[in-house]
């Protein structure tokens, strides 16, 4: 096939793949699906019966809990302790309290309760009906009911569920247990709650088991408790399934009922020794397998014809555009793609790849030229940026230097003291530190040292000591920051925050910290603060990187050139996402925050 063109290769490959796929599906699908469907159906029946048993148990357990209020009632306990034959005031008083405080609220909360009654071992009885027609029973009938319930309950007070009702013509589920009185821990009577079976059957009506499938419940004696055909309720199970249903085995079994072969699955309920059973038609169970077999043959033949037609069309759709692209790419042999190796065979794809490689060669030459041009432009831009940063650094307000020199002259004229030595020494360090114009960052500790010498000079300028509160944790002292940014912010505070003079309560605090991937250094004072309008103006200038003009810069508010100079130099070193932030309130003070990346640590000693 190496000498064939692409189209016959594609068509033959599609044909082989389609035939293999259809044959595999036809041979194995019916064989495997039949076995798997039987397992799935059995699992489904097991889950249906298990869920039905679970919900039935939960339903009865909820009423078991609701009987606790009756068991814990002192009125009920006093009733079962009444002496035999008591029909006087104590009996009617107990009946009144039990009905008003317990029975009527229970009927209101649970309308599915048909009736509630209790019989003491002293042959006293009370009957309460909820929208049911019922009456009282004589002493002999009550005694018969008592004997029946005593024989079907346990002295430990556990719940028993019976298919028994004192009302004729109704199908009720009876919940019964023995109860104790106040005078003894031994059982003294019987408490009975009857539920309408129609309410219980609502739990099972939603089960879909196919056209001939159904769900039923039988008691321990082999009689129907619930059956979709109401005529069969309370009748005996067919002999064909009776023994297998009552054994409640873990696996499904098959039996023929009314000339229909059905699969049955039986499970025992926790309450009442009931058996919950699901029945499904075997013909319906086998129907999917037969359908799969027939469908596989029909669909396989149809799919083969469609697939071959699609293969023909798809092959043409590939080879046609390739021939067009081969002719077009001869006219456009340019691009920025990597060369690809050529295959051994020669077809349309190979020709396309050959033309593509020629185009890649031309494009690589063009890209190289563009890359060299971009490198040259980037280098020029970095030089301009460096020059701009150095220019900004040299724009620090020179008035500080002039004022300091004037102070030195005054000291020299008036007296000969060592204050002049301190000023000159501090000024010499500051001048050496300030004239360095390289772009390298400096550590926080070096910036603090520069501020310390500035304060030495400031002490002689203002005629008093002023200590700056440095709250920076030692872990941050080796973090890097832009050179000559901290001292301008300190000087700004003395010029504008304390414009009316430095008082004893004034302070300047320097702090630093990290938030996620950012390192910040703040300068905070408790001076005059900034008005809201001026604050918004300064923030706008920081956002647009505009230097303050001479008229509105340093004479009002917080200053202009120095603040924006610091902001711009931080951005020049670390990027546009960093810089200076301002927080202030009038008469409360101002906080300037320099934001820098945390990755910059200890680059300069």
UniProtKB/TrEMBL annotation:
It is found in: Cell membrane. It is a multi-pass membrane protein. Residues 316-368 form the HAMP domain. It holds the Pfam family dCache_1. The chain crosses the membrane at residues 12-31, 296-315. Keywords: Cell membrane, Kinase, Membrane, Phosphoprotein, Transferase, Transmembrane, Transmembrane helix. The keyword Zinc-finger does not apply. PANTHER family: SENSOR HISTIDINE KINASE YPDA (PTHR34220:SF7). This is Cache domain-containing protein. It comes from Paenibacillus chondroitinus.
């Amino acid at each position: 096939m190496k000498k064939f063109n692409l189209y016959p290769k594609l068509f033959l490959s599609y044909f082989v793949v389609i035939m293999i796929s259809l044959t595999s599906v036809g041979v194995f699908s019916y064989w495997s699906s039949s076995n798997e469907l039987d397992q799935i159906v059995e699992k489904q029946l097991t889950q249906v019966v298990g869920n039905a048993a679970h919900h039935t148990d939960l339903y009865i357990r909820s009423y078991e809990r609701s009987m606790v209020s009756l068991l814990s009632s002192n009125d009920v306990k006093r009733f079962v302790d009444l002496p035999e034959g008591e029909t006087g005031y104590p009996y009617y008083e107990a009946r009144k309290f039990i009905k008003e405080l317990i029975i009527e609220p229970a009927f209101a909360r649970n309308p599915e309760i048909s009736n509630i009654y209790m019989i003491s071992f002293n042959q006293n009885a009370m009957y309460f009906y909820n929208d049911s027609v019922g009456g009282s029973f004589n002493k002999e009938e009550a005694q018969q009911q008592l004997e029946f319930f005593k024989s079907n309950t346990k002295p430990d007070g556990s719940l028993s569920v019976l298919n028994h009702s004192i009302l004729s013509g109704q199908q009720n589920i009876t919940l019964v247990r023995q109860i104790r009185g106040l005078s003894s821990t031994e059982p003294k009577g019987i408490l009975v709650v009857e539920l309408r079976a129609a309410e219980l059957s609502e739990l099972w009506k939603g089960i879909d088991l196919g056209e001939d499938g159904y769900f039923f419940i039988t008691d321990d004696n082999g009689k129907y408790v619930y059956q979709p055909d109401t005529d069969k309720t309370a009748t005996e199970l067919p002999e064909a399934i009776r023994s297998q249903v009552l054994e409640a085995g873990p696996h499904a079994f098959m039996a023929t009922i009314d000339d229909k072969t059905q699969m049955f699955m039986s499970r025992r309920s926790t309450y009442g020794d009931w058996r919950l059973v699901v029945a499904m038609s075997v013909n319906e169970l086998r129907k999917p397998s037969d359908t799969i077999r027939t469908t596989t043959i029909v669909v396989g033949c149809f799919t083969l014809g469609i697939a071959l037609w699609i293969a023909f069309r798809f092959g043409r759709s590939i080879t046609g555009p390739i021939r067009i692209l081969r002719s077009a790419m001869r006219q456009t042999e340019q691009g920025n793609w990597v060369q690809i190796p050529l295959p051994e065979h020669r077809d349309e794809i190979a020709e396309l790849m050959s033309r593509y490689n020629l185009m890649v060669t031309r494009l690589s030459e063009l890209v190289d030229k563009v890359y060299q041009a971009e490198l040259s432009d980037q280098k020029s831009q970095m030089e301009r940026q460096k020059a701009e940063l150095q220019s900004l650094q040299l724009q620090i307000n020179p008035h500080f230097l002039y004022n300091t020199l004037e102070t030195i002259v005054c000291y020299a004229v008036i007296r000969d003291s060592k204050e002049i030595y301190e000023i000159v020494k501090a000024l010499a360090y500051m001048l050496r530190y300030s004239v360095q114009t390289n772009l390298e960052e400096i550590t926080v500790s070096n910036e603090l040292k520069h501020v310390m010498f500035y304060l030495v000079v400031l002490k002689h300028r203002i005629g008093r000591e002023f200590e700056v509160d440095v709250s920076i944790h030692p872990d941050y002292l080796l973090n890097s920051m832009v050179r000559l940014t901290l001292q301008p912010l300190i000087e700004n505070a003395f010029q504008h925050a304390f414009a009316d003079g430095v008082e004893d309560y004034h302070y300047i605090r320097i702090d630093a910290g990290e938030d996620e991937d950012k390192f910040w250094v703040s300068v905070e004072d408790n001076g005059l603060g900034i008005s809201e309008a001026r604050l918004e103006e300064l923030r706008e200038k920081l956002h647009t990187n505009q230097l303050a003009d001479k008229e509105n810069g340093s004479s009002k508010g917080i200053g202009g050139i120095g603040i924006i100079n610091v902001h711009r130099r931080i951005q020049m070193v670390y990027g546009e996402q960093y810089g200076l932030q301002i927080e202030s309130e009038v008469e409360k003070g101002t906080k300037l925050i320099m934001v820098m990346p945390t990755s910059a640590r200890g680059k300069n000693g």
